[in-house]
Amino acid sequence: MKLYYSPGACSLSPHIALLEAGLPYDLVKVDLRAKKLENGDDFLQVNPKGQVPALALDTGEMVTEGPIIIQMIADRVADRKLAPARDSNERYKLLEWLNYITTELHKNLGPMFSPVLADDAKAFFKDRAMGKFKYVESQLAGREYLMGNQFTVADGYLFTMIMWATDRLGFDLSGLPNVTAYKARVAARPKVQEALKKEGLLKAA
């Protein structure tokens, strides 16, 4: 498999998932602004959406959209319990978390990276995102991870969003002790450390 990624982008989530799953893969770096690969090839020929992550399967098929990619990775190594069993109530809870992270956190944080977005608009998105993080804070009370004591692919995704907020967008989440402790706990996982190192992000953890 090949994971098309950009350092620190949301592709960090499936990168973590691949390492936690123990699946073999190659990393292909993408310049998202130029839509080019390191060898100069046009990334739009790989993924017409022009976004990462994109995962090329050994069959030649291409899978895009992070929440789908990480579930597929988890299902390939069911014994690792990176996702609850299909059709179980717990699996639907995982889907609920993935949907929340992608629509309520990812989609509010993403626009804040735009260099042309006005300050008042950034403040609007920041306020919205902070409200969503407060909900996460309440749900992490008494839990090691989102689904309880078991790390799942949803945790790699949430960790990526927390890194965006604190390390790249300057959010102060110190008033959310559960979220702060959670970030440190996930960052300390060996496979997460490995993903951060491979993407040149270790100092940001």
Automatic annotation (TrEMBL):
InterPro entries: Glutathione-S-Trfase_C-like, Glutathione-S-Trfase_C_sf, Glutathione_S-Trfase, Glutathione_S-Trfase_N, GST_C, Thioredoxin-like_sf. Residues 87-205 form the GST C-terminal domain. CDD domains: GST_C_Beta, GST_N_Beta. Residues 1-81 form the GST N-terminal domain. GO terms for molecular function: transferase activity. It holds the Pfam family GST_N_2. Keywords: Transferase. This is Glutathione S-transferase. It comes from Bradyrhizobium erythrophlei.
